[in-house]
Design a protein that fits this description.
By secondary structure, the protein is α/β, with parallel strands linked by helices. It is 27% helix and 25% strand. The protein folds into seven domains: 190 residues, 3-Layer(bba) Sandwich (FAD/NAD(P)-binding domain); 79 residues, no CATH class; 165 residues, FAD/NAD(P)-binding domain, CATH 3.50.50.60; 124 residues, Rossmann fold, CATH 3.40.50; 138 residues, 3-Layer(bba) Sandwich (FAD/NAD(P)-binding domain), CATH 3.50.50; 157 residues, FAD/NAD(P)-binding domain; 66 residues, Alpha-Beta Plaits (2-Layer Sandwich), CATH 3.30.70. The protein contains 28 helices and 49 strands. It starts with 6 loop residues before the first strand and ends in an 11-residue tail after the last helix.
Length: 1037
């Protein structure tokens, strides 16, 4: 029998590798994280901003990088690679080669003295995509993790010629070690995760696009140009003459979706359309006068809120979209501009256009290290360069998992979900050995802070690149704040969330004997916990901290008013200073967690999550309003190229029915949910039989309620007369071939009442893309050709929306049998009844004329919408939905399957319409996230809670009525009153359930309720200081 190891090897330190590593340690497994580069962070660390939220990429990534570095259960091998893999599932032996940095990692302080004195200069920086140079001793970027320098042995004068050695002479820490050699390390692991990320070609590869011109950039190079820590400090300039461009062209599909040139990729890289739109928006935010043109054959924006983002770029930022394929770029030597030669698709002719700068959305592909790793595993790739899905399934049986761009082209959101999914699968496989090799994080003794101690406040003011520093005069703010009472020390820095900044905060606390700390930077929603952890590591209570949001609340909303923004930053910090000097240490409490999960929805996503969690040993309550499990997708699951079959789902259903820990409640609906994370009380009502109603407790909840397809209000008369020949795509997919009416000609119309734009408006037109319709249409074509191989089939489309590897091939393969016909507006399509056929008239974009023909069968791709009762369920769960009615995740990129309400997760169509394979991935991810909470059996609860002054409380119960979390109860208190004893009713806060929303504080008629960390006294002091009253006039309590 295999000796199961409780450790996991993760290869690749990009966002997907980071996510799986952090999740695995919380699930009870030690992680060895191997990264070939000197720093973790991957591609995401090089980005300026992310779509569709336009958050600073490094700002939201850096806290996770710091978490990796701090985690005692993650052993990070940066600047390393895997040499050998041997063994079998559950018990692998791995040989890692750690390259020498020629720096003693335990001594390096990251001060940079060595880099400044290095005599070797002019080496192209890999991190800055060769737009900037570095020395022979360097750190890739200021927020690198680990924050340790390294020496490039191929360039170092001492290592090659035994001359120089200046770096060793100036290093006060004596960290330089020229004698280091490659180190070979052997480890044992139970599972392996491949997360090696992606790679983009440099522009000089593309001669036809003037790639060697200094004013032609790859999209990744342009990201570095936009970044505040990039080669130009965020200034958009032409590299040859250092002038600001007046016009920029973004060229799509460079080296991708091309079957004619062997050096190009046949697939869609998945992110380019959205990335170019984001870059154009950022350009416009830098300088609204720059004209931006996005040349494309079609815009692919199928993700959640993606299409709305494209429309935002057009309508709010005046980004120009040119429906044209650029085939050649040439420098105009007379005026220094770039001349584009392109096919104007709308007009059907060749056009030319001149711009000052061009950005190539060149193809993304797996990294070279990915292919070297596959050789060691004896795994082959398909003709697209990726592991076939069938082989991925075989690898998973061997406890080898693939995530992120190593699996297929995808964006950050999906890479994060896949990382969590891998962690869940590994937790299922290694469940019996969890927590066997886990260390507890040890903190230094807490520095006592007494009420009588005078506040000593340290303040860090963040530039956040140019997010804050580009608007707010940070130096002026620092100068102002330094003169405020109780401020012992204040300084500015580039990124307060970086690992070196966390070390700096700890140094300041110890050096200046600080007992309070303020960071003025971005949103507490993503960063507060990072800084609280830093305070605790320095020995200070984490609740003696405040994060002042001078980005979202100041620089972002006053971009055109830098002086006012600077003054507002001063005001905000002054206000929070009034609060922070009145803060008191708080302590969290631990609460036991029910090791059971409620899963709402018995479709494929719900079944997948239930099966995974049941196999991890957790109790499951699976609720579905239908009479059987499987959902609408079960009947046609085998039509699609996904990593699960109908028979496997049926086997999982059988497993669930036979598992004593699984309770399947069919024909049932959620009637009520009360409680808090770890302890929810659920009431389920049977639709047909009240005697089957159930009440039970769970620790976590997963929402997997799916979607439904609606019908259109167009052509209603035809639908009434021909209900069997005018179908939605779901209806066609769900019926047997024999039941499809006879036809010689069939038409599928895509984007019916979807993707609202200037040509497609109306009350019933959804703003979004339903994601799956284009791919489903191709499968429906296969079905129709199966029924009648000689049929003539039309697909009327606006822009195809798929990036799936197989869909791209299928689309090409069907060209000989299908007529792909492009239209602009659904309103221009006229359909009537002619001789028992549908007569269609529409304007064809390519032909620029009306086309008309008759068809026997009409299939409509109408919108996918949230499942029935989604809004009611959201109210019961106390979670949010977006404007389209779909459930709203906690963070679009880094928490895509979490709700903001702790302990509740979502997956599949409940999140957004998606392919079955993506739903399965999210289901595993949601299961993994739920398992994290339940695995330890207890959690630390929020201590920013309300509290009640019993002497003032009159027991009226108003607070109970207003509390959205049912965290207040009335209790009876016996009290002696002279000669008599009496019983009084008083409100009591259930601390484990209180979320600190403050509703009860506002509602209380007699002022008997206040709140920790947000007391009425503290809020009043903030208002006083906003009004510039003297801080020293008020007593500190």
């Amino acid at each position: 029998m295999t000796n199961l190891q409780s450790s996991v090897l993760v290869i690749g330190g990009g966002i997907s590798g980071i996510q799986v590593s952090l999740d695995l340690t919380k699930l009870g497994f030690k992680v060895y994280l191997v990264e070939i580069k000197p720093t973790i962070g991957g591609t995401m660390a090089q980005l300026d901003k992310i779509f569709p939220t336009l958050d600073c990429s490094l700002c939201i990534l850096a806290p996770k990088m710091v978490d990796i570095y701090r985690n005692p259960n993650i052993e990070l091998f940066s600047y390393s690679h895997v040499k050998n893999i041997s063994g079998s599932a559950g018990d692998y032996t791995i040989t890692i080669i750690k390259k020498p940095r020629y720096i003693k990692e335990d001594l390096c302080k990251g001060c940079g003295d060595c880099g400044e004195i290095c005599a070797v200069r002019g080496i192209p920086s890999e991190f800055d995509t060769h737009l900037k140079t570095r020395g022979a001793i360097y750190i890739p970027f200021p927020s690198s993790v680990p924050p340790i320098y390294l020496i490039d042995e191929s360039k170092c004068l001492y290592l090659n010629y035994k001359i120089c050695g200046l770096c060793a002479k100036v290093c006060n820490s004596e960290a330089i070690d020229f004698s280091q050699k490659p180190e070979e390390i052997n480890i044992k692991v139970g599972a392996i995760v491949i997360a090696t990320g992606n790679n983009q070609e440099m522009p000089d590869v593309y001669d036809t696009f003037a790639g060697s011109s200094p004013n032609v950039f790859s999209s990744m190079q342009f990201e570095r140009l936009l970044s505040a820590n990039g080669p130009t400090g965020g200034q958009i300039i032409r590299l040859n003459d250092k002038k600001h461009p007046h016009s920029i062209a973004f060229i799509q599909c460079v080296g991708s979706r091309d079957v004619h040139h062997p050096e190009c990729k046949k697939y869609c890289s998945a992110i380019c359309c959205m990335n170019s739109a984001k870059e154009a928006i950022v350009v416009k935010e830098h300088d609204p006068s720059i004209d931006c043109y996005i040349f494309n054959t079609e815009i692919r924006a199928k993700g959640k809120n993606f299409y709305e983002f494209i429309e935002k770029s057009k309508n709010e930022y005046n980004v120009n979209y040119v429906n044209g394929h650029v085939s050649y770029i040439k420098e105009n030597l007379d005026n220094g501009k770039l001349k584009l030669y392109y096919e104007d698709i709308d007009k059907g002719k060749v056009g030319t256009f001149e711009v000052d700068m061009a950005v190539l959305a060149s193809a993304l592909s797996p990294t070279p290290s990915y292919y070297e790793l596959l050789k060691k595993l004896n795994v082959s790739c398909n003709n697209l360069g990726f592991i076939p899905e069938t082989d991925i399934i075989l690898l998973e049986k061997k406890n080898i998992f693939v995530t992120g761009y190593s699996r297929k082209p995808n964006d950050i959101q999906m890479a994060v979900a896949e990382g969590s999914a891998c962690a869940a699968k590994i937790s299922e496989k290694l469940n019996s050995v969890r927590f066997q090799n886990i260390k507890k994080l040890k903190y230094p003794p807490e520095i006592p802070v007494n009420p009588e101690d005078e506040p000593r406040v340290g303040i860090l003011v963040c530039q956040c690149g140019i997010n804050i520093g580009g608007i707010v005069n940070v130096s002026e703010v620092v100068d102002y704040v330094s003169k405020l009472p109780y401020v012992v020390h204040v300084e500015e820095n580039m990124y307060s969330c970086s690992s070196d900044s966390q070390e700096r905060i700890k140094e300041l606390i110890l050096e200046y004997n600080l007992n309070r700390f303020i960071v003025a930077s971005c949103t507490p929603r993503t960063h507060e916990q990072l800084f609280k952890n830093t305070l605790r590591e320095a020995g200070l209570n984490p609740f003696l901290f405040e994060l002042v949001n001078i980005r979202n609340q100041d620089s972002w909303v006053h971009q055109n008013e830098p002086k006012k923004a600077t003054k507002k930053a001063c005001d905000l910090i002054r206000m929070y200073l009034a609060k922070v000097i009145n803060l008191k240490p708080l302590e969290t409490i631990k609460v036991k967690v029910e090791k059971s999960t409620l899963i709402i929805g018995g479709g494929i996503a719900g079944i997948t999550a239930a099966h995974n969690l049941a196999n991890q040993g957790f109790e499951i309550y699976l609720v579905d309003k239908r009479a059987s499990l499987g959902g609408v997708a079960l009947e046609f699951i085998d039509l699609y190229y996904i990593p699960i079959t109908k028979n496997e789902i049926l086997q999982e259903i059988k497993d669930l029915n036979n598992n004593s820990n699984v309770h399947i409640l069919l024909n049932s609906d959620i009637d009520d949910i009360q409680g808090y994370v770890g302890n929810y009380q659920v009431k389920v009502k049977n639709i047909h039989d009240n005697s089957k109603d159930k009440i039970f407790n769970v620790g976590t909840i997963i929402v997997a309620t799916g979607t439904k397809q609606i019908k259109t209000n167009r052509w209603v008369d035809l639908l009434e007369r021909y209900p069997k020949r005018l179908l939605t795509q779901t209806e066609l997919t769900g019926i047997k071939n024999a039941d499809v009416p006879k036809f010689k000609d069939a038409t599928i119309i895509l984007c019916v009442d979807q993707r609202s734009n200037e040509f497609n408006r109306g009350d019933n037109v959804k703003t979004y893309c339903s994601n799956i319709c284009c791919g489903v249409a191709l499968k429906n074509v296969e079905k129709l050709l199966d029924i009648n191989p000689n049929a003539h089939i039309h697909i009327l489309y606006r822009e195809f929306q798929f990036s799936d590897l197989n869909a791209e091939n299928l689309w090409r393969g069907l060209r000989k049998k299908v007529s792909y016909e492009r239209y602009r507006s659904i309103d221009d399509i006229k359909i009537s009844d002619e001789n028992n056929k549908f007569h269609i008239v529409y304007k064809n974009i390519g032909a620029q004329t009306n086309i008309e023909y008759n068809t026997d069968l009409l299939i409509l791709a109408t919108p996918k919408v949230p499942a029935d009762n989604t809004e009611q369920l959201a109210k019961l769960l106390k979670v949010s939905t977006n404007t389209d009615g779909f459930f709203l995740e906690a963070d679009a990129k880094l928490r895509p399957i979490d709700f903001a309400t702790e302990g509740i997760f979502l997956c599949g169509g409940a999140h957004w319409p998606k392919w079955i394979g993506e739903s399965v991935t999210q289901a595993y991810g949601a299961a993994g996230r739920a398992a994290i909470i339940m695995a330890k059996g207890e959690i630390e609860t929020e201590c920013i809670t309300s509290y009640i002054n019993e002497e003032k409380c009159i027991g009226c119960g108003k607070c109970i009525e207003i509390c959205p979390y049912n965290a207040i109860e009335l209790v009876e208190i016996y009290k002696e009153m002279g000669l008599y004893n009496t019983t009084l009713r008083k409100a009591h806060i259930i601390n484990a359930g209180c979320k600190g929303c403050g509703a009860c504080v506002v509602e209380c008629l007699v002022g008997a309720i206040d709140q920790n960390h947000f007391s009425k006294f503290q809020i009043c002091k903030m208002i006083d200081l906003l009004l510039s009253l003297d801080i020293r006039e008020y007593e500190i309590v």
